[in-house]
Each structure stands twice: as structure tokens, then as C-alpha cells.
């Protein structure tokens, strides 16, 4: 029973959370999704 529960949890995480929820949240957050701390500014490329 425990193995079935773990397998179901992994399947649920892989399909729903990573496949649907994360891309949907990234779409909702838009530009705020790509925020980085000021200490990382030296590694960014300005356009």
C-alpha cells in the first residue's frame, strides 16, 4: 500500500504540478517571474 501511495504521489507531482501548475503560474506572474537579486545583476545581459 505504501508503494502504491508513493508511486501515485510521484505521478501526481510529475503530471499536475510540473506539467500544468508551474507553467500556469509562470504565465500569471509574467515579468515578476524573472526577478533576480541585485547581487546577480553583474551576470545579466542588458538588451
Please outline the helices and strands.
Layout: H1 2-29
Count structural domains.
1
Radius of gyration: 17 Å
Structural class: mainly alpha
User: What form results from the Cα inertia axes?
Assistant: elongated
Whole-number mean pLDDT = 87
DSSP E strands, number: 0
Instruction: Give the distance, in angstroms, between the N- and C-terminal Cα atoms.
Output: 54 Å
Sketch the topology as an H/E string, one letter per element. Answer: H
Share of residues in helices: 55-70%
Q: Approximately how much beta-strand content do the residues carry?
A: under 5%
Largest sheet: none
Number of H/I helices: 1
Low confidence ranges: none
Subcellular location: Cell membrane
Keywords: Cell membrane, Membrane, Transmembrane, Transmembrane helix
Main location: membrane
GO cellular component, one term: plasma membrane
Can you describe this structure?
- This protein has 47 residues and is mainly α.
- The protein has one domain (1-33).
- It contains 1 helix and no strands.
- The model has no long low-confidence stretch (mean pLDDT 87).
- Residues 2-39 form the Membrane transport protein MMPL domain.
- Keywords: Cell membrane, Membrane, Transmembrane, Transmembrane helix.
- It is found in: Cell membrane.
- Its main location: membrane.
Amino acid at each position: 500500500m505504501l508503494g502504491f501511495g508513493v508511486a501515485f504521489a510521484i505521478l501526481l507531482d510529475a503530471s499536475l504540478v510540473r506539467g500544468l501548475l508551474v507553467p500556469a503560474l509562470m504565465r500569471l506572474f509574467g515579468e515578476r517571474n524573472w526577478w533576480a537579486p541585485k547581487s546577480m545583476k553583474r551576470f545579466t545581459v542588458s538588451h
